[in-house]
Design brief:
With 730 residues, this protein is an alpha+beta fold. The chain contains 12 helices and 51 strands. Helices cover 16% and strands 37% of the residues. Helix 6 crosses helix 7. The longest helix is centred in the C-terminal third of the chain and has 15 residues. The protein is flat.
Length: 730
């Protein structure tokens, strides 16, 4: 309430004139007020300003709407005496804002954003225009529009009914949805102004959704022809359009064909509904859709302009091309090649029975006209998949939920049920790696893609044998020092495919001892392979494979391990060429049985000596290749030096000799950390009692004259001998 303006309004409404001429600011305007509390009879009644106030402890309210006694008082001046007047005045509130409603309340159509959510801001304006025909005060922007909503949950009778924003939200602790299509009770509220009181309009409005698409269908039955291309067989996109044209007469409202989906029920039993595009592939990688009668769904999704809809009809799709068929030769064989294109060509040439197939002439066809798959096994040694995740990945493949656990558990579970149709070059399915096609008994699956004259064929499978290819192994004999690596071209193969090498070094060391080394392929550093081998090898030898690599193994233990049928069967499952182990056994068995206790070193020789080298290739797709050569591991001589640990001089007392360091240190280019195993000592001379003294381990401590000689025998470092003569005195 603006009491200053109200006071002026009362003054001007009641006072016609004053003598002298007075303004409202010069006159005291009061009303006969009743105290807020404590009013009895004439007690608690008093003339007060229009905005009320306190008289002592009694509080009086401001004037309100209604009829009141008003008093005007002026205190006078030098010319005029004081004056007052009383009058009854009726105080009225502002009137509601002026507006005119539409003669008939119109409907309001829901408006949508691009993401298909309701545009409530736009809807507010639409509802306002549907209700209010004209107003100089009310606008869509200065009013609040609500609808009488029912809470999403917790609504019982009148409980859970409330005025809520058009977009819904929380009101009095309950959650209300946004307004929807239908007859809705609407409240338009305006908060008022100085001139007009708050204004509320309540009415019912028909809220309309977008128009729903209606498909007008042609008369059944529905038939359409398959459309195809000369290069790729079925043209599924063009076939979908042909089906649409055969079924749909018109669409209201007009919907562009590009916004329509044509799908078929992939469940051939018809028990369930699983509508997919015509070119959808199944788990085997093949498209099911072909000529025949299908449940077809034609649909369009909701848009900003309209609501979507769908129709389902039976459509017979025909293909008037020649029915193709691929006949295969069972038991065909061909040789493995590292180039998968060559392998596919071998299948094309050797597996397809051209005479009994219903296909275009062979000379008009190429590999691109066929899809060739093979039954691939899971590749547990694939380095691109972590061993810990492999089991969980396999468990996601339908039918393989029980295959998992540790890596050796997975390897032991591999069988025909874990195989699947994959490209010849292998690949991944649901993250699980499958190996490329290799040598051995294999299953291939072939289907013809079709052309302008012939329809695509069904896929047919055949058993084939992929023969192992031959490999030539060449070992280029080399000379190295023990601390050097082998030259890069030490081992070469033809063809230059990926091979694992088992290399056996056998020979005499510089110490004239038997030197026997086995250098294993890099894959034995693979944690997956170690995880598979450890439990099996421990079962055979009593020691895990990783422990053997750490501690070494005797020749006899190695013979037993490589001769284990159980181990060979497991390795064969995971794609390790066990034929290489037979060649290793041949080499090991050629050594005398008395060497069974000789400990084998893993890796390349680390002791100087002359070794024969036998390289055995490991690749399941090749016959085991063997190459031989020689390796000379030379002793280092330049830069090698023997140095006395302590200077002796020509004489030393017997007492000092007992604590003297007679030792020598071997070094190479100043490095004293090299092995000292090949340093040997010789002490010779006569005691003071002319007794002969000779020793190789213990230096003399009795008085006498002696000669000490230190030499290097064998090992990897050869130094010039050093000698010194000395006398031990009493």
């Amino acid at each position: 309430m603006d009491y200053a303006l109200l006071t002026a309004a009362v003054f001007h409404a009641a006072v016609a004139r004053t003598t002298p001429a007075l303004s409202v600011d010069e006159v005291t305007v009061q009303y006969y007020a009743t105290a807020k509390t404590g009013s009895v009879g004439g007690i608690g009644k008093k003339w007060m300003p229009l905005n009320g106030g306190k008289d002592g402890l009694i509080e009086y309210p401001g004037i309100t709407e209604g009829t009141h006694q008003i008093r005007f008082y002026w205190g006078g001046n030098d010319t005029y005496t004081e004056a007052s007047a009383e009058i009854t005045v009726t105080v009225k509130d502002r009137g509601t804002a002026p507006y005119t409603l539409n003669e008939t309340v119109g409907s309001a159509k829901l408006s949508f954003n691009e993401d298909l959510s309701v545009n409530y801001d736009a809807l507010k304006g639409i509802i306002f225009d549907a209700v209010v025909a004209e107003s100089e005060v009310l606008t869509a922007d200065n009013v609040t529009i609500e609808y009488y909503a029912t809470a999403k949950t917790g609504s019982v009778g009148s409980i859970g009914k409330n005025w809520a924003p058009l977009g819904g939200g929380s009101v009095s602790g309950l959650n209300y949805p946004g307004i929807s299509a239908g007859t809705q009770k609407i409240r338009i509220s305006w908060s008022g102004s100085q001139m007009y009181a708050p204004t509320v309009i309540e009415t019912e409005v028909e809220v309309q959704d977008r128009e729903q698409v209606q498909f007008q269908l042609k008369e059944a039955p529905y038939e359409a022809g398959m459309v195809f291309t000369a290069a790729q067989g079925y043209d599924y996109a063009a076939t979908a359009r042909a089906i649409y044209d055969a079924v749909v007469a018109s669409v209201n409202p007009d919907v562009a064909y590009e916004d329509v989906k044509v799908e078929y029920n992939t469940d051939l039993t018809g028990i369930t509904s699983s509508y997919k595009p015509l070119d959808e592939k199944d788990l085997t990688g093949l498209v099911k859709f072909k000529d025949g009668t299908w449940k077809i769904r034609i649909s369009c999704n909701d848009t900003v302009e309209y609501r979507g809809n769908s129709v389902i009809v039976d459509v017979t799709v025909s293909d008037n091309r020649i029915a193709s068929a691929v006949a295969v030769k069972e038991g065909a064989s061909f040789t493995y090649n590292m180039d998968t294109a060559v392998m596919k060509q071998a299948i094309f040439d050797n597996v397809i029975d051209w005479e009994n197939s219903e296909l275009p002439a062979k000379e008009t066809l190429s590999l691109d006209d066929f899809e060739i798959l093979y039954k691939a096994q899971i590749d547990v040694l694939d380095s691109s998949v972590d061993a810990g995740n492999l089991g969980s990945l396999i468990g996601k493949i339908p039918g393989l939920e029980g295959v998992g656990g540790s890596i050796d558990d997975i390897a032991g579970s591999l069988n025909d049920s874990t195989k699947r149709w994959m490209p010849v070059e292998g690949g991944k399915y649901l993250g699980v790696p499958y190996a490329a096609m290799g040598a051995g008994a294999q299953q291939v699956q072939i289907s013809y893609k079709g052309n302008a004259e012939y329809r695509p064929s069904d896929a047919v499978s055949a058993a084939v044998t992929v023969n192992k290819a031959n490999v030539k192994v060449h070992v280029k004999s080399a000379n190295i020092y023990a601390d050097q690596k082998l030259p890069e071209n030490f081992i070469t193969t033809d063809p230059a495919d990926k091979f694992d090498y088992y290399t056996i070094y056998a020979g005499a060391t510089s110490n004239v001892n038997l030197g026997l080394y086995l250098d294993l392929p890099d894959k034995y550093d693979n944690n997956k392979l170690i995880g598979i081998l450890d439990p099996m090898v421990e079962k055979i030898t009593g020691k895990s494979f990783s422990k053997m690599l750490q501690d070494g193994i005797t020749l006899g233990e190695l013979r037993r391990m490589f001769d284990s049928t159980e181990l060979l069967e497991l390795l064969d499952k995971i794609g390790v060429d066990t034929g290489a182990f037979g060649q290793i056994l041949k080499v090991l068995n050629s050594l005398p049985s008395v060497t069974d206790s000789v400990r084998i070193g893993f890796g390349t020789p680390n002791r100087a000596g002359l070794y024969s080298v036998t390289v055995i290739t490991d690749n399941k797709n090749y016959n085991t290749g063997v190459g031989v050569g020689a390796l000379l591991v030379k002793m280092r001589m330049s830069g090698v030096k023997l140095t006395w640990n302590q200077s002796l001089g020509s004489k030393i007392s017997a007492a000092d000799a007992k604590n003297f360091d007679f030792g020598v240190t071997l070094s190479y280019d100043g490095d004293v950390t090299v092995s000292q195993d090949n340093v040997h000592y010789l002490y010779s001379g006569f005691t003071s009692k002319w007794k002969v003294y000779s020793g190789t381990t213990t230096p003399p401590t009795e008085p006498g004259r002696y000669v000490m000689t230190v030499v290097t025998l064998g090992g990897n470092y050869q130094a010039a001998p050093i000698t010194r003569s000395f006398q031990i005195t009493k």
